[in-house]
Fold these 4 entries.
Entry 1:
Amino acid sequence: MHSQASSVEKYTDERARPRRGGVSAGGAMTALQRTAGNAAVTAMVRHGRHDHGAGCSSGGCGGSPAVQRAKDWKLGSTSTELASVKAAHPGDPLVDTLHHIIPKSLFQPFLALLSPAQVTQISTDLAPLAPAAFASPSVDKALKNLPANFRVGPRPENRTDDPGSGLDVNTDATGSTTPRSAQLENAYNYMAAAISAGAVTQTDFDSQFLAPVIDACTLHGAAIDIDPARATWIPDPVPGKYHKP
């Protein structure tokens, strides 16, 4: 197994290394994700990314089809932080619900492809960067509580751009993907392709999953820090509805 301490160097080296004889393994995975991957992964991740709000029912959120969602993903530290942030912004519809950038339902099928050593590597490399999340002995639950992967926003029924169980990047006021979300998008693309292919190589795991997530966590910082200023929303003509720039 490759050294756990060198994920970022591997990520840099992999991107800089000249390619010979066609497409790299990572490129092949990305190409697969562009073709069959999206539909296959969407079917796997029908469990949603966000919490249900008061407007959600058995018929779905805001008229969307009903989606089953895991109810036990939050750690106490996550729930406490969200409650504190909401208390500091009473009645603010834009500071209401946690949304995951990488959908939380993607982690379990991805982890199922990994070796025990790779699962341990995730904990070893990410725990110092997200200690509250990795207080959980479950790596799946820790990843679902990764603070860098949160964005705060309105309830799904109050969004006109809710992506369901898809990627939900954070954007700035100009509509550009933020650096943190750009790294998480890289990891998401690899995870989706790996799930579709049913295979993970150590090199791609290091460079295309672990290193981007390390970068995102480093950009976010070690505190939970559910920061409403990191999410920008624009009112829609329909009262009480919002979308990203």
Note: The longest helix spans residues 25-44.
Entry 2:
Amino acid sequence: MLTIKSKEITYNSAEVLMDVSHCILIAGQDGKNILLSHPNMFLHSETRASIKTSKRYASIISMFYRFLSTQEKMKNKALGLYHVLADNRDIKLWQVQRQIDRVEAQSLRPSSETIYEDAKILLVYFKWLNDRGYLTNVHVTLKTWRANFRSRRMLNYVQLMARSKINASNIRVLDKKNRQKRSNFLITDPEIKLLLENYSDPVYAAMFNLALGTAMRPMDLAKFPYIGNKDNKHISPYSEMDKHRITTSYTVYKSKGNKDREITIHMADLKSLEENYIIPYYTTRKLLYKERYGHACPLGVLFLNKKGEPIDENMIASRTNYTKNKIIKTHPEFRAHLAFYQSRHWWPTQHIIATFGDRLLTESLDALYLATAQVLTAQMGHDDVQTTYKYYVDMARLIMLLHKGRSFDLVTSPAQTVRDFMNGLKMPEDVLANEEIESIDEEEQMAG
């Protein structure tokens, strides 16, 4: 089978006159390394704003090209012709093959929904080619590319081709188990406490706490400074800041989509950050940084691991995944799909509960939206918040019913931090256990 490697590159683009980062695909065939020109042009054009998006799109195109290499029609055909020869039927067959492999392995992943969403990303790739005049056989406007896994004939075919053992789970059963594993999209309070208590390096717990209180993405947290500059020149350790204020502003530079935005940070969370990370760990770690890199740690770098290395979003994801797997061994009720990114969704839900209280259960969505949508737009960094807002209102209403109004005031509480709130909770571990709510933000699914 064809081998394809994905490589992350950074360079100065003559097209946009600035440094860009994205993935490229390099195929190994007949002892040669071959750049996949058309996929790489697409990745440059459409994914350079987010390296996570670039990795995901590159992975999907790579999987599809490897599948094509196994098809008779592609035998002895040059890789540069794959985008021309592939058609809607090939995309459907790729989906079917993924289900066959999944059923044969009796795996919960990828779910039917994921397989479908991945196929849609392939359509984005082929539409990009079509729009730029490159010849393809994929008709994006036709629905003949989608495999119908609800069809009895299709289910029977997949089951037969998978050569499963007697009584093995079929697609529907595996999808059901997958949904059960992912039930309650929002991370629960007991799960937050378990995660904070089990990180082997306290820097990740400090970052998770700050994420809970700000809704910052991991990529934004990694750039949070010890001492800020420009619009953030007022950012310092809490003991050096104006303590008479309840909150402070913070400008997030070059977040997803290369966009800047101003968010609100609770001063109590900065105090917690100083007490639980900066005072006990930062001084030692910045010395380790100097030993490792030969120069003083920049003031724009705050979060360092035990070796003095700056924390990046990949490190956040991998350490959280390791910690989660460790927790599951002693607490099997801890849900396997949870990742660091869940912290980002905790903030808007709690903010809506704190803002509206019992009104959530009586007033219309439109009235609630007008009152606080702008706050969520700024804090979350979404261009169009309507869909996500409705999701968070629905989640907040559910929590209001089950938690009986217990919420954390992220914006106006003068003293309480996220850590204080979590320590004061006494809640059954199976709260929300019977609800199934799906994520509306696909980038969270990449972490961990």
Note: Confidence is low (pLDDT under 50) at residues 405-415, 425-448.
Entry 3:
Amino acid sequence: MSETTEVAATAQTGAVVSGGSASLWGDAWRDLCRRVTFWVAVVILAFMGLLAAFPSLFTSVGPNGGCDVRQAKLRPKSWNPFAGGDHPFGTDTHGCDYWAQIVHGTRAPIIVGFLVTGIALVLAITLGSLSGYYGRLLDAFLSRLTDVFFGLPLLLGALVILTAFPSHGVFTESFVLGLLWWPTMTRLMRGQVLSVRDADYVQAARLLGARDLRIVVRHILPNAVAPVFVYAMLNVGVVIGYEATLDYLGVGLQYPTVSWGLQLSQAQEIFTDYPYLLIYPAVFLTATVLSFLLLGDAVRDALDPKLR
């Protein structure tokens, strides 16, 4: 190997290792690049992200815009969405262009999915780190608090809490789901912190006089948080599924907000006569949830040396 192409990585012992990078994330990225399922999931999620962020690129009609009740429940001319026409996906029960409604319905579930995951992740990293690092009474208190939330079924808890709010907007739904979503990730974070808090490099930092905050942030978290991030990535799709379920049951987002769950709810009673009203949003919802699960599985496998 020539000197211009040789890459040197310094090991913990101070020796120089020639060859490819020994970085865990670098090895994981190279493994991901070889996985077809990873790229399929990335392409689908990139498309969904564009729908959510820039709906005007795909439709000139606004949410709940251009509706004509005289054209309500107009069936699509073809099941081929690329067949063209004024309404390639037909119209809904209010005479709105269904393709435009599906495009605008992408934003709410994706925002809720990431907000809920972000809230739960922040709580899990904070509480799990405190519980695992300090232990004793604090660990006992946080463990019992986690048990209490584990005993409350997530969907039932969300149903009970959301019915008490006068309005069920995106942020209200995200806040409620986030407060109920953190226990599993917190347990995972606590276990990871417990596995590394007595490592030699942590003990060395203590002997050198490093404060607890610096030890946790600089030494423990970088070596403990990866599995929690992977689990969070896996659960974005699951959260989107729960969001659609709450909308479907009528306690989630409300009109005039547009979401796939609301579209499924409106289509349930007329599915036999107008199946396209349920099939189109169901396909988009399923593709999004499945893509997040495939992406999370691929990242998890790539970060686990035992599965390589």
Note: The domain at 107-257 is CATH 1.10.3720.10 (MetI-like fold).
Entry 4:
Amino acid sequence: MSVIRLGYVHVRVTDLARARDHYQNTLGMDAVHEEDGRVYLKSWDEDNHHSVVLEEGGVGLVKFGYKVTGEDSLAALENRVAGFGATAERMSKGDNAGVGDGLRVTLPSEHVLELYSEVEYLGTKVGKINPDPWPRTGLRGIGVPRINHALITTEDPALLERFFAEVLGFRPAERLVSGDEPGDLVGSWMFCGENPHDIAFVNGPNGKLHHFAYQIDDWSALLRAGDVMSMDEVPIDFGPARHGITRGGTIYFFDPSGNRNEVFSGGYRTGADFRPITWTMDQAARGINYTHREIDQDFLQVVT
């Protein structure tokens, strides 16, 4: 597959100073660049220039980016996007700080997706030669190691699943359905590597973000993350709990502007021979919140 993984999420925030404090001091990210009312941040175990961009002025998703294997991949993907009937334009080095030339795609769900292969290398806090498992100094708050996935909403999940499969080469790991017809797809959790999911989407308004997530080590790290959130009075949506879908441990919470974040641990391994799992709507509560087997309606309806 030419798409490797989620590279960055770019969101709007109502108060840049408060948002920066949340992402730096509660989550533990580092600011690497600032310009024109934007702050670019990366986590300690990420090599590339940034994984989160905060832009002052509103709330919600501006765009998100996925890294691909090379320039040849971008050309092939551009042809597939056109063949699908979606729109795309080339983006230039410098349009995003630290990121090279790429392809900017408007998805059928009206989200903006950027695909790129070249990005400035900053390295991790532990390096690549005889590294320690985590930095002895410089960790703050939760100390999230890396970004993991995003979940967006779409009026037509079946169409968006087909786009990610046919154009970008993703495969569904798990699907939530309300019936047997293709149009009965309620949600899809899709992967491009070996994660349980690299992108997910559920039925809802076009162009909206449900959450983006950070990978952390295990259940103990998840509980510690919950402690830090309580210390910093971060609004928690739900968790600590386990998902049925993906089997991962989770806590959902909000940044100061109301964008939903997640810390995610565990899950299973996918890959080229993975066969998708199906969940039916009568078991959706277990799929989303396996621990408590119930869903707060605000969790489904609050998006930015």
Note: The CA atoms of residues 49 and 297 lie 37 Å apart.
